[in-house]
Amino acid sequence: MTDEYYMLQAIKEAKKAYEDGEIPVGALIIMNNKVIARGHNQVERLNDPTAHAEIIALTSAFNFLGSKYLQDATIFITVEPCLMCSGALYWSKIGRVVYGADDEKNGYKKYIVPCPAIENLGVAPWPFHPKTALSHGVLKDECAAMMKDFFRARR
Q1: Which of 36, 101, 102, 151 is 20 to 30 A off residue 75, Cα-Cα?
Q2: Which residue has the higher pLDDT, 65 or 123?
Q3: Are 10 and 25 spatial neighbours (Cβ–Cβ below 8 Å)?
């Protein structure tokens, strides 16, 4: 299976959020080429600002595995994770993060400030666990279009 295949599954989750009037973000966690958890934004439904797609998917994966660590798992997220979700991903020690569209307003990169002390060491600021790999831009146009459509419809 390819990153694009799994991102299409995450997009299906984002569509569920869209249909529920939630910001359309979806997440999918895989391990050994098997989907072990899914999630989509449920902030409005649960009246909980922490009910992001990533948090829902992480909680489901922890319960499925009976473990708080996901070193051998990959999460696919339709939109760049926020700082809160990046922190949760850090603590999960997830092996890989893959996201589609950038989020200039609320994504983690907005809050990562360059640090000269570590840049001199050849290290960039990093919100994820040191062993976590990152890929981005997978089906970014499709992921971004859903967000744009959602907000355009509400203005």
Answers
A1: 151
A2: 65
A3: no
User: Do 73 and 98 form a contact (C-beta atoms < 8 A)?
Assistant: no
Supply the mean pLDDT for the chain.
93
Q: 147 φ, ψ to 5°?
A: -65, -45
Task: Give the tokens for residue 147.
Answer: 């967000």
H or E element that contains 137? none
pTM of the predicted protein model: 0.92
Is residue 37 within 8 A of residue 65, CB to CB? The reply is no
Q: What is the pLDDT of residues 129-142, one digit of tens each?
A: 889 999 999 999 99
What residues act catalytically? 54
Distance between CA atoms of residues 131 and 107, nearest Å = 20
Residue with tokens 């299409």: 8
Q: What is the per-residue pLDDT for 12? A: 98
